[in-house]
Amino acid sequence: MTRRVAMRMVAYVSVALATLQCVEATGPRALDNSIGVILSGLVPSGSGAPSGLSSATVTTRVVYVSLSPDAVPGGTTAAITNRATGAVVTAAVVNGGFDPVPIGASIGDTLAVAVSTSEHGAAVSGFVLVAARRAPRVVRTNPPPGGRDVPLNSTVVVIFSEPLDPGTLDTTALQLSRDSVLVAGTARLAAGSSLIAEFQPASLLAPLTTYRFSVSPNIQGVAGDAVTAAEPVSFTTGTGVQSVGAAKLAFTVQPTNATAGAVLSSVVVAIQDSLGNTMTSANDVVIMRSACVPGSSCDGTYTGNSLSGGVSVQAVNGLATFSTLRLALALNGYTLVATSGTLPPVTSAPFDVAAGGPALLMFVGFSYATVGQPFSADVAIEDGAFNTVSNATNAVTLSLASGPAGARLTGTLTASAVNGVAHFTDVSLDQPGTYTIKATATGLRETTIGSIAYDAGALIAVSTGDDHSCGLTLAGVAYCWGRNDHGQLGDSTTTNRTAPAPVAGGLTFRALVAGGRHTCGLSTSGPWFCWGANESGQLGDGTTSDQWSPVAMAGSLQFIALSLGESHTCGIVSQPDLEALYYCWGLNDHGQLGDGTTTPRTSPTLVAGIVLASGPVSAGGDHTCAQNFDLGETFCWGANNHGQLADATTIDRPTAVIIVGIPCDSGPPGFVPPVYCPRGAFTPFNMGMTTGRLHTCAGAGGAFAMSFAWYCWGANGNGQLGDGTTTDRLGPVLVNAGQQFGLVSAGGSHTCAIGAVRLPTPPGQVLRGTVFCWGSNSNGQLGDGTTTQRTSPVSVSGGLTFMSVSAGANHTCAVSVSGVYCWGSNAAGQLGNGSTTDSSVPVKVVVQ
């Protein structure tokens, strides 16, 4: 019997219960590291933390970001942004790279590194994902590889990507040799830094001689990970010695209390000898960053370095004057830290930064609404640097900036701020639809936010299986409809339903995902529950018995997302202070569980060969794919009879194979790679992924884009790849000559996508657009009013706009502002309109 399978893509479920978006594709994550950004693991904010420090004792954690020399030729400055917190660190780029710079972070944060260049005009960028642990690396050495005319009294210096465990640093770890004979000397950490190691020869080096310096993996970082082996460095000496010079830095003019966003008073740092004399001949570059006093409001609250302005200054007559520094966050207990080359860092006296006067409004709390029922909103009074002005009492008024004709916003629409925030608790909207709500206050810049008002009981999320569909209400109540022969509707029966039936058990859910003949939901109380077919153990409850109502998954693993295939399930496990990992369970006849076997599993089994789950996982018919955003890689495993793994073969794979992406110079007309991408390199699939019964699709595009080029591969007998042919493809082909899409969902033998997706403006605006479909249309599953097969995308009839779409085996459902609509096959009632008649145009699911 031919298997049919729904699209099995589920987004990370770290969405708020208020939104309950259960979409079928992961939102854009533009991560590409073509420029070679180096990232450490998470370490305590004090660089001298001992190895093995318990995470329970760490209150503030940082990662160190660096770039090896010549990584970005012509680079001038680097801006490092934590996209999760908004914190920004800047660094001077020297010889195309920069030494490690700390920034506050948590596991899963995305760091964007933008390097301004003199050669390219525009900044080039790299994107990396924060992980709990990484092996330290050598960033650079001095002398550098191939160095010439090196002074005879030189100390060899090595800069590492992560603070070192000093107990692992000795002359077996750092070795200098001449003609394979080791040179006697001392290995140590540089004064004041655990990132810099030094090898001091016991005597002068020989003139005009080639030396070889090597770093052993015996060295460990503070987390206990061995340093990644580095190529030995060779250099040649000259004939002279260097004079003894600068020994330390000192603040000669300290920072004073300041206002957020305003320029700090000038700060001066002197380059001094060991006796404290300013070296008037010194013209070295001094770099400034901000830090926090332990126990201050800055400590623990302050995330990363928000210092901006001229943070890199060249000393004049031994003095570096910083006259344009700014701090954006209003907090107490700041300090400044100055560094220069291998000199020990120096820390300033502490100072405070206060919020400025009221300047603008900002929505800081908002919930979607049910028509006629009160909802809440919070509006903050902020200064020009976006700090809440805690003593502000301004009166704030809400009004409609846009919405359905004749719609009204009612309730108490004016409120005075308390502690800088105006709270609204009883406002309501009288019509369903999308709105823009505006907040105003006399003399302050207004702000707006997008919102949706739903009819009471409306479904706001949908996911499709083979012949069934499930949806969620704003309150998290789950409904399912369609075929129910294995209990996949979860209503305690095996009776088909032509209209939504509530899932039994009284549970409420944050997310809901439908598979071939089974369904799973993330409950608001925490655990995942599953129900339906279980002959291969795909419910993960340790049995092979079908379940007609929700049962909790067995075991203690905490899954942040699940994706359901035909008869298998995969998920992502997040563990505190450890890497996230992929697990799969259920049928494994083609290796779709990725554990290196073809043995079925009734409980979660670790996917082999992928060390970091930094992106989504998607379970298809008998294959699975996942993405590692951190490394810019896509992995697939399992059935490959139509090339759905994109490894240029039709051989099944029980372990993951890597899909590197597409050549940088092979994109569609007007395609912009996500970052600076040298000719001949690859742009990764970095914009999401979806698997169908026998095909796979993935997106690639520019940073911060919300619509981008999609590529598909695998079975194409019905045109489901969208490339205008019906030829199977063993590697990625462009959908419809580069037509841009946002969310994409691969189904049985068809594919659907949301087009014309745009960046949310203002913040909070709902993403929505026209749905396009292509491929098999025997039951009207393309929704274009025909049953004609299409090898290129066609728009769905009816003129509706949708926020998410889910392609099943032979039917499709999508969420609009007026509810859920479905089209295509309806033999089991999977369209939810009370009938069993197929429809080639969208029909609204009843009881909404």
Summarize the SSE layout with pairings:
Blueprint: E1 38-39, E2 43-44, E3 61-67, E4 75-82, E5 88-92, E6 98-104, E7 110-117, E8 124-129, E9 138-142, E10 147-150, E11 156-160, E12 174-178, E13 181-182, E14 185-189, E15 196-201, E16 210-215, E17 233-237, E18 248-253, E19 258-259, E20 267-272, E21 285-292, E22 307-308, E23 312-314, E24 319-322, E25 326-327, E26 334-340, E27 343-347, E28 353-354, E29 360-366, E30 369-370, E31 375-382, E32 395-402, E33 409-410, E34 414-416, E35 421-429, E36 433-440, E37 447-454, E38 459-464, E39 468-473, E40 478-482, E41 497-502, E42 509-514, E43 518-523, E44 528-532, E45 547-552, E46 559-564, E47 568-573, E48 581-586, E49 601-606, E50 617-619, E51 623-628, E52 633-638, E53 653-659, E54 662-663, E55 682-683, E56 689-691, E57 695-700, E58 709-714, E59 729-734, E60 741-746, E61 750-755, E62 771-775, E63 790-795, E64 802-807, E65 811-816, E66 819-824, E67 839-844
Parallel strand pairs: 10-17, 19-28, 30-37
Antiparallel strand pairs: 1-3, 2-3, 3-6, 4-5, 4-7, 7-8, 9-11, 11-15, 12-13, 12-16, 14-15, 16-17, 18-20, 20-24, 21-23, 21-26, 22-25, 26-27, 29-31, 31-35, 32-34, 32-36, 33-35, 36-37, 38-39, 39-40, 40-41, 42-43, 43-44, 44-45, 46-47, 47-48, 48-49, 50-51, 51-52, 52-53, 54-55, 56-57, 57-58, 58-59, ...
